[in-house]
Amino acid sequence: MRLMGRDKSKYDLIVIGAGPSGMMAAGRAADLGARVLILEKKKRYGKKLLLTGGGRCNITNAEFDVRAFLEHFPESKQFLYSTFSKFSAKDTFTFFEKKGLPLVVEGRKRAFPETQNAEDVLRVMREYINKNGVEVKTGVRVASLEAKDGKVMSVKTSKDAEYFADNFAIATGGLAAPETGSTGDGFNMLEKLGHTIVPPTPNIVPLTTDESWVHNLSGLTLSFMTIRFIQKGKAKVKKTGKILFTHFGVSGPLILNAAREVVKLLEKGKVTASIDMFPDTQENELDRRILNLFDKNKNKLVRNVLPGVLHEALSEVVLKFPYINLFDREVNSVTKEERKRLVKKIKNLTFEITGTLGFDKAVITDGGVPPEEVNFKNMSSKIYPNLYLLGDILNTNRPSGGFSLQLCWTTGWVAGTDAGTHLETKSPSGIMEQI
Fold this sequence. Notes:
Blueprint: E1 10-16, H1 20-31, E2 36-40, H2 47-51, E3 60-61, H3 66-70, H4 77-86, H5 89-98, E4 103-105, E5 110-113, H6 118-131, E6 135-138, E7 142-148, E8 151-157, E9 162-170, H7 185-192, E10 202-204, E11 207-208, H8 212-216, E12 221-231, E13 234-245, E14 249-251, H9 253-266, E15 271-276, H10 283-296, H11 302-305, H12 312-320, H13 336-347, E16 349-353, E17 355-356, E18 364-365, E19 374-375, E20 380-381, E21 387-389, H14 403-421
Parallel strand pairs: 1-2, 1-9, 2-6, 9-21
Antiparallel strand pairs: 3-5, 4-5, 7-8, 8-9, 10-18, 11-14, 11-17, 12-13, 12-15, 13-14, 15-16, 19-20
């Protein structure tokens, strides 16, 4: 629907940023009849969407109970319920499947396009905004939002162009993967307007260590391990799952989802990681298993026997530790005390955490506008009611597994619906007309 009698130099909605939440807001508002402009500073938009899920796009999490879904947003769930009640993970399934992109569900309820290709998700979103007549200007960096009397009036670009609208939406993302365009521009603009900005930190991000033996295991994945993060002799964080060793430290879903808590610990001092490679096996039981293995292979080298219970690469690492030093020993020479030290090491493989890979390699950052400054009924700013705040611009902590993209789809849809519903609907003659 197009409405006659509008100022043709003025848009109903200007969206800053053509990421997932920005495209969703723009497409939804335009579908309801709004005249919409997207301003995107990158020449090609959607790059961050293409990076998600390792290029497969973890599009959402298939937890269809809204309250259960929001348990994964521990610090902001009380704010988000009304928003997610309007557009949930189930609605995301419906949205994409109606547009010819079926979704499939994998472990931990992670949902992906059936094609396993993020390009298809981006294609659907581009078709959505194009079909509904959204105007997109790329290579345009917004320098500031101009406000007057509690209302945003226009945006000014770095090249001194100015665009006017009734409503505006900031969908510029946080600080994760800055090469995609998420460099904190939205935070700077909002801070100048008087919003509080909680300083961003890498949230879902790999952890680093200086231990060379960890680096030497690069590429090795441990499928079911428990890792504890210890500070001042006490285990502060405990996670069980898959761990990936890398040339810089450790990664994988378990590590990524523990990173935020570990970062906070690092602010207080030294953090040591402890991996238990047999979390379901008691120490005495593991000792019996190794003893039985040794009894059957008494005349062999320990390094050729231990891979019977432990991955070969890990066996080599553990046996070469100075306080173990069994790599070149024969099984029949190993004392009971040495064997027990070996068992303890397998159950408590420690290394110091030195930090994270930072914003460049973060999947998600936290920080941004605190929930207290947002009207979640329509995703508008409580300071400027005609300004919508979308996706990663909000300070919301959540794990990996599709939760971040669902936040984008939901906030974009709710804001777009609000902007498209409250249009100046009458021509000068007082009659609504459709083009």
